[in-house]
Each structure stands twice: as structure tokens, then as C-alpha cells.
Design brief:
The structure is a homodimer. Chain A is built from eight helices and nine strands. Chain A has helices spanning 3-16, 29-36, 40-52, 71-77, 109-115, 154-158, 161-168, 187-192, and strands at residues 56-59, 63-66, 95-105, 123-132, 135-145, 173-183, 201-210, 215-224, 230-235. In chain A, the strands form two sheets. The first copy, chain A, has a six-stranded antiparallel β-sheet with strand order 3-4-5-8-7-6. A two-stranded antiparallel sheet of chain A has the order 1-2. In chain A, strand 7 and strand 8 (215-224) form a beta hairpin. Chain A is globular and about 60 Å long. Chain A starts with a helix and ends with a strand. At the A-B interface, strand 6, strand 7 and strand 9 of A face strand 6, strand 7 and strand 9 of B.
Chain lengths: 236, 236
DNA sequence: GAGTGGTCTAGACCACCCC
DNA sequence: GGGTGGTCTAGACCACTCG
């Protein structure tokens, strides 16, 4: 564990545990240097992690202050960013999966372009429904190059593809480019998600990248609008 | 202008102008040190800006590589992040505004909590419709504490509140916490946005903060789903 | 003027990749 | 083994806030 990560985690815990009230001032960077026995630039980096998460604000000439945001935000953005697949973001709930389609096909030109592969290559073509505590929450359309992510089996799909990638294949996920939009469900999706009446879906389309820069996934997840939101923090 | 900002901008331009092909390797950090006459940590910081924007990937032991994402992404996330109000994010289009409501009221308990003020305080209560090239694109419900953002006039609302804050009041915007969701428009909104038939709206609710940590705005903008998306890049 | 965080340096050592 | 980026140091100076 790096020093700055450990320090960031420490401060985070102090805030989450209520040791720092919302609006109150954090210990000075100089003080933290002494407390942790590190240089100031390392403390700065640790605190900058919290700034990135939106938990604190730095004011040059004054100090660093706790922002005091809603608890939901802290939980959702938290130490981990809005990352991981579906399973990881809903800890504490019972997650189950229904695999509706699992084939290997050629990608469309659009998908091939996004995944930086040829239409001659092969991709997994997966449709899954995700349930939270037994209620359908979203339907996920996933395409992944078999070259990049080999060994996907039915069993992997029932759990987390992300776990398979990081734990079994030992690959690192680096980033995701997401586009969020609103749409109406198709008739099939209304069945999948047990939607009656008029309810839109929140669509999250993403291209995800490994740490070596290769795109490894193009997916669209379409969520019931009454049970899902997408959160983001942006810093100027 | 700071050195690392200038260097980041330089590299960004090299990528945007196509001097670096997608997938190609950037100049080494050591080379950039020589080129710009700065220390390596400064070059690193510059390149990290581009990583944050999702334009490049660093591979320890190998180098830094251009990710090769869609042009839309680069434009939208770009050098500026997905920031600024509506006017700034649609340069090149003709933007106009229709003010439907402009009053001063007490905030609801929920809004007061988010803005860290009392329900006894006053907030502007604003409803505006935004048009892109003459077509209604979204309706925006804004509440701002009059104490924090004084001097809002009809004329300001016709242009950009953000410009007023940064240029007239000389305040710095620091961050925004956003929650994106999908919903159906109300009957009134269908009129405002000239929606016929069944079309959902993409809602972006946000609390925005000044650089001194004070929340200064709670707003909900509800966009026609057929003309709007929300983009985000997340880095592990 | 005293004190805060912001930027930057020159140099060290480490973890990792590839040959 | 040679070269990459990652982390960290000790110290300097600057920009800003506040009393």
C-alpha cells in the first residue's frame, strides 16, 4: 500500500466516522506531515484524492474543509469511484442474474470501431438481466472481443465478468467512457424488467479499457428509471 | 499560466491535431523534460491531466499511449471537463432562453439541507427553457441563495448565470455533484419542450459549489431524451 | 505579516515491461 | 539488463487569505 493511499484512507475514515463535522477544517498539511512522517507533497497528494471524490475543498490561504455532502453520495462515490460492474456497486443486496443470450458473433462496424477490432474478429454477444433482491433492475447488452477476454463461460456470466477479468485473467481495468441517456423500453424489455404502464429506462453505454489501453468491452445497460440513478462528481 | 497546464495543453493539441495517431506512443517523460526544460514530476503532472480526461493510457515499463476515442468524446470532455452551464457546452449553436419563472422564495427543507442554509433564508426560484437553434432542448429549475449569489436580474437569466458568477461576482466555481436519472415529462413540460407522443426526459440534478466550499446552486435540468446525452469518463 | 495551500526542482529508489 | 513510469524526499519560492 502506498503512503498517499493509506493517508487518504485514514482521512476518509475520519470524515466518514464523523470525527470531522461537515464544514470543519482538516488538520493542516504541515501537521499531517509530522503525524505521518512524510513530506508535504505526499500529504498533498493524499488530500487531493479526497478533493477528487468531492469530499473536501481546499482554500489557499485558509486550509482544507469538509464539504458536508449527502451520505448517499459518499457511499456511492466513496473510496472506489463509480467503478466495477453491477455486482460490486450493490453490496448488501442480493444480486442475481439471468442469462438471456450468450453467443459468439462478428461485431457490427460501429462496435468494431469502438473496440478497435475488425468486423472479421469475434466478440461475445451477451444479454443478461440483473435482479436486486429478486426484482429486475436492468438488462445489459455486452460485447467483448474473445481475443482480449478469453474463457467466458455461463458460470462467469452468472457472477461478475469483472471479477473474472481481474482475478482469473489478472488483467487490470483502467477506465470507462460512458454515455448516459434516457429512452423508452422495448416490448421485450418491458417483459424482462416487468414494467407495466409508462416507465422509461436509464441507459448507460460504455466502452471500457484495460490498463494496457486495449478496449475490452462495449456495453449498454438499461435500468428501470424508478430504481436507478447515475452519480458523478466533477471538479473544475 | 502554470507550466504543467501549458504542457498538458500542448500535448492535447498534438493529439487533437492528429500529430499522434490513435494507439501511438507519446514522447517519453524524460524527453519532454528536456523539450520543455522542466522536471519530470511536472511533466508527469501534465500527462496525468490527459489521463484524467481519458485521452491517454500510461503503461509502466512501456510508455504512454494515445487511447483513440471517438471525437465527440474529446470535444465534450476536452480540456474543460463537462463543466459550465448550458450556454458554454453548446458553442457553435445558437442558444436562447425563455424565463418562465423568476421569484424569491424560502427553500424547501430538502433544498435548504443541500444548500446548507435555513428554511428561513431566501433563494431565487427560477424556471427557464433553453433552446438550441430555436428548438427547445431542456427546462431548468434552479434555486440559488440570494446571500451567496446577489444581483441576479432578468438580463442575467437570459444569458449565463455562470458568466455572471465568474465574471461579475468574481467567484470561482469548484465542483458539482450530479445525479442523472430518467423520467417522463409532466404535461407542462411536454408543452415547454414541444413533446408530442411518448418521449422521456433525461434529468440532471446537481448541487454546485464555489471554491470556498459554499454550495451556491441546486438545480434540475430536464432534457429532451432525443437530443441530449450525459458523458462521463471514470478512471480506476 | 504570519500562515495557508500551489507549484516546482533535482535527485533517489522502486515496480514493472520487454528484450 | 536496460528502460519505462510510480512514488517519495527536502527544500524553495509563489499566491492567496486573514487579522
Amino acid at each position: 500500500m502506498n503512503k498517499y493511499e493509506q493517508i487518504a484512507r485514514d482521512i476518509y475514515n475520519d470524515i466518514a466516522s464523523g470525527k470531522y463535522e461537515p464544514g470543519s477544517q482538516l488538520a493542516l498539511e504541515k501537521e499531517m506531515c509530522a503525524q505521518y512522517g512524510v513530506s508535504r507533497i505526499t500529504v498533498k497528494r493524499a488530500v487531493d484524492e479526497l478533493v477528487k471524490q468531492g469530499l473536501v475543498v481546499k482554500r489557499r490561504g485558509s486550509g482544507t474543509f469538509v464539504k458536508g455532502v449527502q451520505e448517499e453520495d459518499v457511499e456511492n462515490v466513496g473510496m472506489c469511484g463509480q467503478f466495477g460492474g453491477f455486482s460490486n456497486t450493490h453490496q448488501g443486496h442480493q444480486v442475481s442474474t439471468d442469462v438471456k443470450k450468450f453467443e459468439i458473433v462478428h461485431p457490427s462496424p460501429e462496435v468494431a470501431e469502438k473496440l478497435k477490432i475488425s468486423t472479421e474478429d469475434f466478440v461475445y454477444d451477451i444479454i443478461r438481466i440483473r435482479y436486486l433482491d429478486g426484482r429486475p433492475e436492468n438488462v445489459e447488452y455486452t460485447q467483448m472481443p474473445i481475443e482480449v477476454i478469453p474463457g467466458i463461460k455461463q458460470e462467469v456470466l452468472m457472477n461478475s465478468i469483472y471479477n473474472h477479468i481481474e482475478n482469473t485473467l489478472k488483467l487490470q481495468i483502467q477506465s470507462a467512457h460512458r454515455t448516459v441517456s434516457a429512452d423508452m423500453p422495448t416490448e421485450e424489455e418491458k417483459e424482462f424488467l416487468r414494467i407495466e404502464g409508462v416507465l422509461p429506462v436509464l441507459q448507460v453505454a460504455q466502452v471500457a479499457f484495460l490498463s494496457d489501453g486495449r478496449p475490452f468491452e462495449y456495453s449498454k445497460s438499461r435500468h428501470r428509471a424508478d430504481t436507478s440513478v447515475f452519480r458523478a462528481v466533477s471538479i473544475h
